[in-house]
Amino acid sequence: EVQLAQSGAEVRKPGESLKISCNGSGYSFSTSWIGWVRQMPGKGLEWMGIIYPDDSDIKYSPSFQGHVTISADKSISTAYLQWTSLKPSDTAMYYCALLGEQQNFDYWGQGTLVTVSS
Amino acid sequence: SNELTQPPSVSVSPGQTARISCSGVNLGDKFVCWYQQKPGQSPVLVIYEDNKRPSGIPERFSGANSGNTATLTISGTQTMDEADYHCQAWDSNTAWVFGGGTKLTVL
């Protein structure tokens, strides 16, 4: 069974750094693309970026390039999304999702709620 | 343009047919998929490759895509289908793009 287990909710102050994780199991982690998707409160889904863990090939949405960093450690089947300086506008639910053969996201993690507030 | 436009809301009576649109430039040239998202839950893929249903998705869910518009159709809508629905497409230039989402109300 494919599972994407995300790290728990986080509360940070503006300017702080953060790294959230997504652990994949039940499939070949290294040779499958994993994407990150943002959902701001009451809003739609936004694709942020995607990584191929085997060679760390990464594609970023222009909207998020330079604002976040995506990485992966294939030895522990875990993908990461990190910020160096959070803003209140980063408050959102963040999902990791497994990319299917036809460019759709077949499986989703449970989401990580990030709250940035002073 | 890489935008996908969905109506903010659609209402339907139980047992009737709900249709949710997703518009974009030359969208018919791309594969479109649809996700269902219930409150407090993660999205679930209900349609991929325009009109295919993943295992476990009821037959009342169907999809079509032509020209500039893709449509998700739910036949015999049930109260359990009340949710947000998001369309998504991909192409080599714009990568993965989502629509703004549509809230389906069954009343």
Q: What does it look like?
A:
The complex is a heterodimer of chains A (118) and B (107). Chain A contains no helices and eleven strands. With 118 residues, chain A is mainly β. In chain A, the strands form two sheets. In chain A, strands 2, 4, 5, 6, 9, 10 and 11 form a seven-stranded mixed sheet that branches. A four-stranded antiparallel sheet of chain A has the order 1-3-8-7, with no helix packed on it. With 107 residues, chain B is mostly beta strands. Chain B has no helices and nine strands. In chain B, strands 1, 3, 4, 7, 8 and 9 form a six-stranded mixed sheet that branches. In chain B, strand 7 (83-91) and strand 8 form a beta hairpin. Chain B is globular and about 40 Å long. The termini of chain B are far apart. Chains A and B meet through strand 5 and strand 10 of A and strand 7 and strand 8 of B.
Tell me the strand percentage band of chain B.
over 45%
Low-confidence stretches of chain A: none
Give the overall pLDDT of chain A as a whole number: 97
Largest interface comes to: A-B, 22 and 20 residues
- Label the structural class of chain B: mainly beta
By DSSP, the count of extended strands of chain B is 9
| Percent helix of chain B | under 10%
- How far apart lie the N and C ends of chain B? 35 Å
Oligomer: heterodimer
The beta-strand count of chain A equals 11
Rg of chain B to the nearest angstrom?
Answer: 13 Å
Mean pLDDT of chain B: 95
Q: What's the shape of chain B?
A: globular
How many helices of chain A in DSSP terms?
0
Structural class of chain A: mainly beta
H/E element order of chain B: EEEEEEEEE
Which band does the percent of strand residues of chain A land in?
over 45%
